[in-house]
Amino acid sequence: MTRAIVLVLDSFGIGAAPDAARFNDAGADTLGHIAAACTRGQCDARGRTGQLALPNLARLGLFHAHHASTGAWAEGVAVPESAIGAWGHARELSSGKDTPSGHWEIAGVPVRSHWGYFLEEENSFPAELLEALVREAGLPGVLGDCHASGTEIIARLGEAHMASDKPIVYTSADSVFQIAAHEEAFGLERLYALCEVARRLLEPYNIGRVIARPFTGADAASFARTANRRDYSVEPPAPTVLQKLNEDGGTVVAIGKIADIYAHCGITRTVKASGHDALMDATLEALDDTVDRSLVMTNFVDFDMVHGHRRDVAGYAAALEAFDARLPELLAKLGNDDLLVLTADHGCDPTWAGTDHTREHIPVLALGAGLAPGSLGARETFADIGQSLATHLDLTPMDDGTSFLPSASSSTTLSNATGGH
Ligand SMILES: O=P(O)(O)O[C@H]1O[C@H](CO)[C@@H](O)[C@H]1O
Ligand SMILES: [Mn+2]
Ligand SMILES: [Mn+2]
């Protein structure tokens, strides 16, 4: 039975990418800076203490991959002499450092074109766009209209939102239009309907995602975002390996945010879960009922949403350790023909300035499918993962990427790799 399992640790970068300076991210290193903060006692909080302890990821080659990416060993961590898995680091061809670009490139489809962005920190959105939104949705107006961190802006404007019925609109360095509204005071279904209107109005602006950000609570001190976030993404620019597998009769199980991120293209079955333990439980359950030629793909979003963007270094360290502790359960379920890939979609260094993603290498930790333990080297695109999945699942080759599997017969072009920037 041939299966592939891809776990995306959302935002778990392992060192600045070669083009990081273009994003003001030269020197960013999500893993390295978390490990260093642990050695300084800065992550001794909420019950966790000491050096960063990731014994299972270490056995899969995480720290070897980080060393290859940055030239330095992560501080204070225990590194096994050899790894049981194949490990490498990959750079991104896509123009942006956002979640859809990263995921689509992982699935074999880099985004070479440029997204639209709302660059102004204040008055970020065109007046005619907001006017159309207010008119079509019958709103008394909107609040926000700026770059913001989602938790900060609901604390700042949430009470005014509840009093006025005006939703809060904001953006970031990503190609996003986000709408925050109170689940009860404004209404969840009303928020989703509003996002549909925004999705349509944003078509001329080439914006990657509209995101519904519902929250609950009585006042600024108690507002909290809920698990009912919903992403409205545009479709990938070409068929991903998910779509190819689905169309070729295989099975694609999308766990957590995966289906939203791929705009529901190529998904056989969607499993929603909230929180990393529930996401891991769902992944393990999916492995109990998958059939031949299946891909199980899970996004672990809290690394990014709850810790990375919040610049919560201690929380990120604790979340990594909790994730690591669950890995043996997953490894125990793998069969001889399974390919496991652990990776990330971009960085979000919690020690970095601001609250945005960071342009970093991602880890490529692979196990099974005849892979020998050891280095996969520096990969020129995240799409090497997608190409390897295509090889493993017996699909025709993707246009981008080079398979790292031993039977790599489907190595294709890097010829496109320089185009389009
Ligand atoms: O600060 P919050 O609302 O979590 O927003 C973050 O989440 C968005 C989508 O991943 C990113 O663009 C970033 O702005
Ligand atoms: Mn992401
Ligand atoms: Mn993010």
UniProtKB/TrEMBL annotation:
Pfam families: Metalloenzyme. Pathway: Carbohydrate degradation; 2-deoxy-D-ribose 1-phosphate degradation; D-glyceraldehyde 3-phosphate and acetaldehyde from 2-deoxy-alpha-D-ribose 1-phosphate: step 1/2. One of its GO terms (molecular function) is phosphopentomutase activity. It catalyses: 2-deoxy-alpha-D-ribose 1-phosphate = 2-deoxy-D-ribose 5-phosphate; alpha-D-ribose 1-phosphate = D-ribose 5-phosphate. Binds 2 manganese ions. Its main location: cytoplasm. Keywords: Cytoplasm, Isomerase, Manganese, Metal-binding. Mn(2+) 2 binds at residues 304, 309, 357. InterPro entries: Alkaline_phosphatase_core_sf, DeoB, Metalloenzyme, Phosphopentomutase_DeoB_cap_sf. Its cofactor is Mn(2+). The keyword Isomerase applies. Mn(2+) 1 binds at residues 10, 345-346. It is found in: Cytoplasm. Its EC number is 5.4.2.7. Residues 3-395 form the Metalloenzyme domain. Belongs to the phosphopentomutase family. Isomerase that catalyzes the conversion of deoxy-ribose 1-phosphate (dRib-1-P) and ribose 1-phosphate (Rib-1-P) to deoxy-ribose 5-phosphate (dRib-5-P) and ribose 5-phosphate (Rib-5-P), respectively. This is Phosphopentomutase. The gene is deoB.
